[in-house]
Design a protein that fits this description.
Oligomer: single chain
CATH class of the largest domain: Alpha Beta
Family: Belongs to the leucine-binding protein family.
Helix content: 25-40%
CATH superfamily of the largest domain: Response regulator
InterPro entries: BCAA_transport, Leu-bd, Peripla_BP_I
Protein name: Branched-chain amino acid transport system substrate-binding protein
Domain Leucine-binding protein: 36-382
Strand order of the largest sheet: 8-7-9-10-11-12-13
Keywords: Amino-acid transport, Signal, Transport
CATH topology of the largest domain: Rossmann fold
Number of helices: 11
Largest sheet: 7 strands, mixed
Mean pLDDT: 90
Number of strands: 13
């Protein structure tokens, strides 16, 4: 395959001045004030995953600006587009490394991330994984991986504990659920995690059927019909944003009104594109995801800066996790006082960082490169946007149950 960077590649060198401190971040050493760190960003900026990929690009650019203004770290960000093809992860990583990038961030999709990590491993260039939940990312022996995002099993286990609490708190809870899930790397990993964690957590809800579908599917009428025919009165979905929209539209078309739509480890409820497409029909569904902490000290400032730069978008988990990954890199570069890959790698291994934006415990990586204190929130679509309903300490809304029938909205 040829060079995929082409017209989708943009270069941004973040300039300016400013020094500052935040919990866990050290000031930039004076001796390194003129040093520029070249960071490769690998995202699906076009293709079926373009919505989240472009959101990640926005988060990377905002994160670099923030790191410069707050911490005095200069970064040259070089963006590469995987075109939503997992095999392009390695091609993009190879290209970025050849261009002199000494640390990578990416790649959103688990398949593309694993592909990119193969190139990072061969070149000994560290890669901070902002989003990608498949267990394989940190279970295949990669030494260059540093994943901020939880594994699918961690997300699902935490999500199902929250689901169990919800079911115990509502009147007339659902009795069974159909699981509609992607059949790609992420979807299969999450479905396996659901099967395992459902038993461990002892969710008081029977799984009627698992129904996989292709991520390139243009029509999910058959799959939704199967879910409806299973007799389930709840839907558990593992989706990207495009198929989350298709599933909801099919529920409306087929007259299926589950009492609960719940998505562990998915897109949909968190995405602006979801509400743009569905309007009032996007409300009510629940999603577990990594999300920003609305009560963190810098959140309001970061959101204000984001809105100034991108007035027609909103800060979501994609842009938020990408933003946080840049701060992880900035912290490592500061402590390493170097832009050399091996020295950044050594610093990343010793990361002990309070997150700047996202809801999480202190960011620390275990021997496999997994953030050991990752955490999830529960979001519900309310009033045309996602609201945090759990944990209560950072919640800005209360649960609405049951799902309002689509035909009476």
């Amino acid at each position: 395959m040829g060079n995929i960077l082409g017209k989708d590649l943009t270069r941004r060198t973040v300039l300016g001045s400013g020094m500052g401190l935040a919990a866990g971040l050290m000031p930039w050493h004076a001796s390194a004030a003129s040093r520029t760190v070249k960071v490769g960003s690998i995202m699906p900026s076009s293709g079926v995953l373009a919505f989240p990929g472009q959101a990640c690009v926005r988060g990377i650019n905002l994160g670099a600006k923030f790191a410069k203004e707050r911490f005095g770290v200069e970064m040259e960000i070089v963006h590469a587009d995987t075109q939503s093809k997992p095999e392009n992860g390695r091609i993009a990583a190879d290209n970025l490394i050849r261009q002199g990038c000494t640390v990578l961030i990416g790649a959103w999709d688990s398949g593309a991330t694993i592909s990119a990590l193969q190139a990072a491993e061969a070149a000994k260039v560290p890669m901070v994984v902002h989003i990608a939940s498949a267990t394989q990312v940190t279970s295949q022996g990669f030494t260059q991986v540093f994943r901020f995002y939880p594994t699918s099993l961690t997300i699902v286990r935490q999500s199902l504990l929250e689901l169990k609490a919800i079911l115990s708190s509502v009147e007339n809870p659902p009795k069974s659920a159909a699981v509609l899930h992607l059949n790609n790397t992420m979807g299969q990993s999450t479905a396996a995690s659901i099967d395992q964690a459902w038993k461990e957590v002892d969710v008081p809800l029977k799984i009627a059927e698992y129904i996989p579908y292709d991520e390139k599917a243009r029509d999910l009428s058959v799959e939704v019909a199967k879910a409806k025919a299973s007799g389930a009165d709840a839907l558990v979905s593992v989706t990207r944003v495009n198929d989350a929209i298709m599933i909801t539209r099919e529920c409306i078309k087929q007259g299926w009104n589950p009492k609960l739509i719940f998505s562990p480890n998915s897109n949909g409820v968190q995405d602006k594109a979801y509400y743009n497409a569905l309007g009032k029909y996007g409300d009510g569904a629940i999603l577990s995801t990594v999300w920003y902490n609305p009560k963190a000290p810098d959140t309001a400032t970061i959101i204000k800066s984001f809105e100034a730069s991108y007035p027609n978008e909103w800060l979501d988990a994609n842009s938020g996790c990408a933003f946080e990954a840049v701060q992880i890199v900035a912290d490592a570069v500061i402590r390493a006082n170097s832009s050399v890959s091996s020295e950044i790698h050594a610093a990343l291994r010793k990361t002990d960082l309070n997150p700047v934006l996202m809801y999480s415990g202190k960011i620390k990586f275990d021997e496999n490169g997994q953030n050991i204190n990752s955490a999830v929130t529960m979001l519900q679509g309310q009033g045309g946007m996602p609201k945090v309903i759990s944990p209560r300490a950072i919640a800005d809304a209360s649960l609405q149950y049951p799902l309002k029938p689509f035909e009476v909205r």
